[in-house]
Amino acid sequence: MDSLQQRSSTVQEPPGAVPAYRPTPPPAWQPRTDHAPLLPDAEPLRVLGTDAAADADPALLLRLYAELIRGRRYNTQATALTKQGRLAVYPSTTGQEACEIAAAMALEERDWLFPSYRDTLAAVARGLDPVQALTLLRGDWHTGYDPHEYRIAPLCTPLATQLPHAVGLAHAARLKGDDVVALAMVGDGGTSEGDFHEALNFAAVWKAPVVFFVQNNGFAISVPLAKQTAAPSLAHKAVGYGMPGRLVDGNDAVAVHQVLTEAVARARRGGGPTLVEAVTYRIDAHTNADDATRYRAAGEVETWRAHDPILLIERELTERGLLDEDTRSAAAEAAETMAADLRERMNADPVLDPMDLFSHVYAEQTAQLREQAAQLRAELDAEGEA
Amino acid sequence: MTTATTGPAAKAAGAGKAKPATMAQALQRAMRDAMAEDPTVHVMGEDVGTLGGVFRVTDGLAKEFGEDRCTDTPLAEAGILGAAVGMAMYGLRPVVEMQFDAFAYPAFEQLISHVAKMRNRTRGAMPMPIVIRVPYGGGIGGVEHHSDSSEAYYTATPGLHVVTPATVEDAYGLLRAAIASDDPVVFLEPKRLYWSKSDWSPEAPAPVEPIGKAVVRRRGTGATLITYGPSLPVCLEAAEAAQAEGWDLEVVDLRSLVPFDEETVCASVRRTGRAVVVHESAGFAGPGAEIVARVTERCFHHLEAPVLRVAGFDIPYPPPMLERHHLPGVDRVLDAVARLQWEAQS
Ligand SMILES: Cc1ncc(C[n+]2csc(CCOP(=O)(O)OP(=O)(O)O)c2C)c(N)n1
Question: What cofactors are annotated for this protein (chain A) (predicted)?
Answer without folding.
Answer: thiamine diphosphate
